[in-house]
Amino acid sequence: MMIRGADGTDITDADAVAAIMDRVMPHSVLNCAAYTGVDAAEDESERAFAVNRDGAEIVAAACAARDVRLTHVSTDFVFSGTRQTPYPPDAEHGAAGIYGRSKSEGETAVRQACERAAIVRTSWVYSPYRHNFVKSMLSLMRSGRDLNVVDDQRGAPTWTRDLAATLIEVARTGWTGTGHWSDAGQCSWYEFAVEIQRQALEAGSLETPVSIRPVSTAHYAELIGRTLAPRPAYSVLDSSLLAADLGLTPRPWADCLAGMLAEEATLAAASARRKE
Ligand SMILES: NC(=O)c1ccc[n+]([C@@H]2O[C@H](COP(=O)([O-])OP(=O)(O)OC[C@H]3O[C@@H](n4cnc5c(N)ncnc54)[C@H](OP(=O)(O)O)[C@@H]3O)[C@@H](O)[C@H]2O)c1
Fold first, then answer.
1. Is it the case that residue 273 has pLDDT exceeding 90?
2. Of 27, 89, 136, 260, whose Cβ has the fewest other Cβ atoms within 10 Å?
């Protein structure tokens, strides 16, 4: 069920959430709705907490009251980023920024309101749709601009296709608990950008390489002339618990990236044909 569907239901509005639950009578709810502006959240903390904590609680309470399964999506940003090995699902939270804190408190609120909920944390999500790192990199590379990309934050990219399949499996099996899902392996944003360019050149969806320079987060903030919200320096998630329970195997991130780039090329070709 899409909470924010054609009627634009706001998850911070308990009456609206109750109304759509009673109208749709879902068997299962997947809550992907969130305030996701990591930097903007520092200035709009009230809104971030309203959506990511209070809205999450409203959805969870509505599910609990109707005995409806809930899968709630959360983030690697709930962690401090001080580890050097992948975060297991029961690792202590320690978000430094407002976005991560609001999502962390959202998880607690969900767990209190709906004991049987599944909470699935993911990281560095990309797809051919909407705004994300892979699409931004491709667009900048195609414009021929040389790039400075952060090299002191490590994480695991996640293709929405594999994430969606996992979330569907969580809902289908009624899995409960807190789990992690990302593509396998890890990289820095810089390494991710280098691989995006390598694959795009190889696939012919990028004609000319640009220069990609690794920079620190602090230097990147200087280059763009604004203060960035704190981000975890290391936020690789250990997906093994969920993978084992569901009988799934995360695929290497570079393989998933290849799948996404192929999908992006197909969509671009279809869009070009429609314009002809
Ligand atoms: N992107 C990542 O790298 C990443 C990483 C880890 C976890 N996550 C988690 O994945 C989930 C989806 O994130 P995303 O990246 O897909 O973000 P997104 O593109 O910003 O999508 C969030 C969605 O939530 C909707 N929304 C915002 N406020 C709402 C409200 N009050 N009521 C109902 N809907 C509302 C937004 O609708 P409008 O656009 O109409 O406002 C948007 O459709 C979130 O829980 C996020 O924390 C994302």
1. no
2. 27
Phi-psi region of 271 (alpha: psi -120 to 50; beta: other; left: phi over 0): alpha
* Ligand 1 midpoint to CA 51 (Å): 10
Q: Locate the ligand 1 atom nearest the alpha carbon of residue 55 and give its number.
A: 31
What pLDDT does 7 receive?
A: 64
159 pLDDT higher than 80: yes
Check if the beta carbon of residue 132 is closer than 8 Å to that of residue 158: no
Q: Whose CA is nearest to atom 17 of ligand 1?
A: 36
Which tokens is 251 given? 């695929």
CATH topology of domain 21-275: Rossmann fold (3.40.50)
Question: Domain residues of the chain, as ranges?
Answer: 21-275
Report the distance separating Cα 261 and Cα 82, nearest Å.
Answer: 32
Among the ranges given (3-12, 97-106, 131-140, 232-241), the one the predictor scored with the smallest mean pLDDT:
3-12
Cut 0.90: pTM above it? yes
Instruction: Say whether pLDDT at 6 is over 80.
Output: no
